[in-house]
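URGENT: need a sanity check before tomorrow's submission.

F., can you look over the Exocyst complex component 3 record below? I want to be sure the sequence and structure line up before it goes out.
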Amino acid sequence: MEETSREAVATAVQRVAGMLQRSDQLDKVEQYRRREARKKASVEARLKAAIQSQLDGVRTGLTQLHSALLDVKDIQGSLADVSKDWRQSINTIESLKDVKDAVVQHSQLASAVENLKNIFSVPEIVQETQQLIEQAELLQAHRKLMELECSRDDLMYEQYRMDSKNTSDMNLISIYFEDVQSLSDELAKQLWMVLQRSMVTVRRDPTMLVSVIRIIEREEKIDRRMVDRRKQTGFIPPGRPKHWKDKMFQVLEHTVSTRIEGTQSVTREADKMWLVRLLEITRKYVVDDLIIVKNLMVQCFPPHYNTFNRFFSLYHAAVSARVKELASEDLEANEIVSLLTWVLNTYKSAEMMGHPDLFSECDINQLEPLLPKEVVDHLLSKYIQTFTLNITGWLRKALETDKKDWHKDSEPEADQDGYYQTTLPAIVFQMFEQNLQVAAQIDGEFKGQVLKLCLKQMNSFLIRYREEAVAYKEEHLRDRQLPPCYVHYMIAIINNCQTFKESINSLKRKYSQSPEPTESDAAIDKTLGGVAKDGCQFLLDEVFLDLEHHLNELLTRKWLSGSHAVDTICVTVEDYFNDFNKIKKPFNQEMTKEALRRVVVEYIKAVMQKRMSFKNADERREGAERMIREADQFSFLFRKLAAGEDTERLCGAITAIAEVFKLTDPTLLFLEVTTLVSKYPDIREDHIQALLAVRGDASREMRQMIIGTLSENKVASSATSQPIFRDIPVPTMSMTSMTSMATSKLLK
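Structure tokens as predicted:
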């Protein structure tokens, strides 16, 4: 208390100090004193009121406790009296057992009397109910059925209460009401029939479907009531619970499954497009039925049934089961593609489950896949295997057909630019295009696999194509009169290589997901280049087989005396190249260059073979001038054929050799040979010796000096220009030719 008083005094001092901080506030001291007195009086009044209220509450509580104590004592006394009376009445209660039994019997009899009318009218009600069921008056029939079941169930319940072990009376009641269960089963059949035709019923007579749902809902309520009573009493009527609601969903599920399974109208034997027809019919049925469910059937079912989503799931499950059955069958390649395209693309598209009329009611992204991934992978693997076998057979057949065309008497067809071609590239790439279009319908990854397989098969096919082209050439060499259009079809084979290359690039641009070149691309390019190169070589071989006799006349005595071998060579080459104009670029250009090179090489080879040796300066001059004219002929011809920049250099080799022969002063021979070597650094020592031998006037010492000096000052070959002399052999001089040369010198 003292501490509280001190705190109060300190607080008061602080308040007074706060009010009297300035001198002018001293005038208001009396005012402050009155204000504080009023506050004190107010606080004291509130304290008194609060204390008085607490005291009144305590007084009231004590009074109530006193009253409660008195009541408890009265109750205790009353309980004691009741206990005393109960002990005294035990014997009396036992003596009233007969009365109790009489009361139970009275209750049962009262129930029997109450149901007596119904009991005697059971046969009549059964007959009426049967007629109502036959007339499809299902609601009225169900009401009658409920009356019969109620009478039976009440009688059985009373019997159960009276004597639950008395089975004979129970059996008697069951026998009397045995038709009731038959009526229930008959009514159920009618309900299931309506549900099985629900898609038709909901459009023709939706009230019938509503009646069925109402009956099932009533039975569900009765089932719940009977189950609850069994928990309390242990009794449940026969046939309960009926579970008609569960049965209804089973019927609907079976109906949907049957509808999906019944879409197959034809078999593979009757129609090759049976699967496409089946899938299209299934799609149409599913979409049409779900639209009916959304627009009509939902209104016939209670909202808590979640009708649309339930039917949506049922159709999804039924379609999934059906496509699994189809996937397990021995499907052909085109059927696998049709099935997978439908499953992976069509099913969730706007044409089916994603239809605009259904999209707002469901989320197609929540649907489970129709086919498990392992089944899809198995089908894709099976398709790849079948496709590999098929495409190998197709390519083999296409090549066999093309080979037959090679032996025709008529020339191959030409494209719009006049280039010879066969139908092989078009057939092959039409095959590839069709299969890639089909694969693209499934997904991008599978499309890439099919493209890769096509390119792999293409490479193998081109290897066989090359082998057949070689065999075609060898067959021709056995009899050059056959096949009659050998040159034209070899040109077509070369052109096909360019068409193949363009078609492959087109396929890759259209179907490849990666623009980067692959090992397969390099292999195909190499094989195509090999086929085209072989074809060009075969054609040039054909040309030079015709030129062989005329080439053998070059640099001989007959040639020197006025042979027309070069004229014939030029005419023959030009004639052949009129046909070779039908070869596509770049092969025709490369072939022209190679033809020029081979002509020049064969000409120089004739020189190096030392078929003759000039006897005097006049022969050397005449031979050299003839060589220069013939070089000009070759140059003119191949410029006309557009052989390219190397024409002058190649033909210039003949001219340069002619200059060596034409030289009249032997002392300048070294300078002329040096000029030749500087222009054509790939020329060898044996070439120089052969040239000097043909010239015929170079002494042994001069030859040795020229060769020695050239060996010491050897000119490096240029990497930019194609060598001419490198591949030209110089035959070793036989004894006969040596004797001939010696005789010639002696005569000279």
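My own read: Confidence is low (pLDDT under 50) at residues 734-748. The chain has 28 helices and no strands. If you see anything odd, call me.
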